[in-house]
Amino acid sequence: MTGKGGGASGHGMNLDHLWAGWRSEYVASVAPSGDAEEDDGCVLCRIAACGEPAEANGIVWRDDRNLAALNAYPYASGHLLVMPVRHVSDLTELTAEDSLLLWNAVRAAVTAISIAYKPDGINMGANLGRAAGAGIPRHVHMHVLPRWAGDTNFMTSVAGVRVMPESLPESWRRLNEAWPTEGS
After folding, report:
1. pLDDT tens across 64-101, in order?
2. What CA dihedral angle connects 73, 146, 53 and 89, to 10 degrees?
3. How far apart are the first and last CA of the chain?
4. 39-178: which CATH architecture?
5. Judging by DSSP bridges, how do beta strands 59-62 and 66-70 pair with one another?
6. Which residue spans within the chain are E strands per DSSP?
7. What are the residue boundaries of the structural domains of the chain, listed by start?
8. Which residues are catalytic?
9. 91: DSSP letter
């Protein structure tokens, strides 16, 4: 839905409004400081508590130490969050074994994305702390998402809006089917 306005500068420019009402749930869950409410718990811990992988909870894969779940507010279709099940806010809280297992889960996510989407490249990384851009700074997580050469949709650069060509259930199905089995 769009609406027209007179423009902020008063020069008669039209101002379009793009409505993303689904974002209100996320915005409402964030405290004024930008962190999840203490008494409400960590959103990533709530995801981890959901149990086995399922389309309904967005968990594509898990074991007893780590999990991979769809980002509910993705930058691109197939955007995964790979994280420890245990609530840790800093990489230094992970043991050497925890770090190795987390990295193995990230590698499996890269494999699944490569099989499911056949992208030209993959972005992966972590935003550690609010100043680094972390939307959920209290629970360490890695972003892993497919990218394509020339994927410069004008909506992102002109309107600051992402156009998602695939639903979250379809992304879940594709990634769940492509997740590597043990030993592969």
Report:
1. 999 999 998 888 899 999 999 999 999 999 999 999 99
2. -60
3. 46
4. 2-Layer Sandwich (3.30)
5. antiparallel
6. 59-62, 66-70, 80-84, 121-125, 142-147
7. 39-178
8. 141
9. G
